[in-house]
Amino acid sequence: MTTLNRIRRKPKVALKYRIPRLLVTLGLSLIAIIYAFPLVWMTISGLKTNQQIFREPFALPKTWDFSIWVDAWVVGNIGQYALNSAITTGSAVIVILFAGSAAAFAFSRYQFRGRGALMGLLSLGLLLPLQSYFIAQSTMFNALYITNTRFALIIPYIAMGLPLATYLLTVYLKALPDELFEAARMEGANDFTIYRLVAMPLLKPGLATVGIFSALSSWNEFLLALLYIQDDALKTIPTGLLAFSSRYVTDYGLLFAALTIVTLPMIIIYIAFNKQIVEGITAGSLK
Amino acid sequence: MKATKPWVPYLFIAPALAFFIFAVLIPMVATAGFSFTNWNGFGDFTFVGFANYIELTTDDIFAKSFQNVFLYIVLTLVLEVMVGLGLAGLISVQKSGSLWFRVALFAPVMLPMVVVAVLWSFIYNPDFGLVNGVLTSLGLEDLTRIWLGDPDTALLAISVVSGWVFSGFFMVIFYSAIQQVPSELSEAARLDGAGEWRIFWSVKIPFIRNAIEVGVLLCVTGAFQGFDLFFVLTNGGPFNATEIPTTLLVRTVFRNADVGYGSAMAVVLTVVILLVGWMFIRIRKWSEKKELRA
After folding, report:
1. Residue closest to A238 by CA, chosen among B227, B213, B286
2. CATH number at residue A259
3. Does B115 sit within 8 Å of A263, measured CB to CB?
4. Same domain, A22 and A162
5. Does B228 have pLDDT greater than 60?
6. Do B107 and A242 touch (CB under 8 A)?
């Protein structure tokens, strides 16, 4: 009797776990389809004519003609906008990594007068919203003739990225044992050599995380780009795409294609770097 | 470690500090200064004391913008944080959060908000948009409407876009927190006969309370600073139904050249955001203390 019960109960228990699991998997797949649907619809619509988009919004395109992507790239000037974004983001990230790691090196490795106060000052940047300073920043940049140059974006992106970069890199550096640095000092290395040859190589994982995080926020920044850059030749992807979409308001196929072109690389980047990106974004937000 | 020269540490900090002081601190102090003037962006100005702030107290649109942003906060707390938490719970049951699932949910976070906004302006398009299209094919023509042009639905429509973008983001944050839950805890609960739902509510959620609190703070402060979606989708319209402090602020300063008045708005908004952050820290300290005593 007892053995019989045991035999009977066993598959029952297993089933009890398996059915919800299966349901969860089904539910998750459904959710994934719903989330991905707008992006799939965007890609497909980009391959249709206006007429098709209006008549049969859910149908697949009649022909799979990807040459419209080339048209969108050329007509939409996306190459230029992407280049501008790359220059702006690249310059900002390089400065953030060097200036941030240097400051983090000093904060984590030296005792000096005003250390706490200076750290506190820089940490203010973790709390202050953009709205607290961008009005006067724009008048300042106007007065200094920085507006409508690449510096109008590079400088604020650096200033906005540095507080978090410095904070995270300080945490990374503090975790390293003191002996590493003392040993280099015994060998007669000066402060800059220690920063360059001891701290920087050990910081590589931290720099990757901080770099990805700052790159994403610079690449996607919109408000300052909208206010400071009027010259179309200098616009970055967000503002450039907006200008494009107001110039070709009704050419939906072309606009969908343009959206697809700027979306695909981001998805590929996510698949390639998803570990660093998730780490960067969670570290960046859980500051 | 001791520096070879006393000025060395300052030299290391100087570049970072220079950028920060030049592009953030000085402008912040200057913005606060502008708020006490009637400056119009060029030419002379006079100090007007607190006149701008007094005017703000009777500005209906400014009040409306705060009312809207509070509503937006409530909606996004549900659509971003709660949905994100639910999704994290689901993938933690399944254990292997497959790459494709994460790509589908996280891809929107990667995109520039402008791209998201332009895409959703098409999704809400009354003529060929996805939303009305789906409703029509389900036989629900009565529910179709001009989502972004209707004062009753515009704010909700924008909140849904926010949810589409950020629920994946909060899912990632909560999922990485759930992974820290010791497996013995959920195993013990399972042995006691608890189902997955019960384990999620009574074991996992209490364990990741910290992450949830941070998520709420991020959602609230992020909502106050929202701009991109609102600017592209509605720019405050229709009839100020989606006016939030930032869109109003940008229009006041950069369209109407009312720099002094706009700066006063900026100061009020900044104080509110900092106050929310400060209250959050206080509440957290207080509850930690209570926990220690218990």
Report:
1. B227
2. 1.10.3720.10
3. yes
4. no
5. yes
6. no
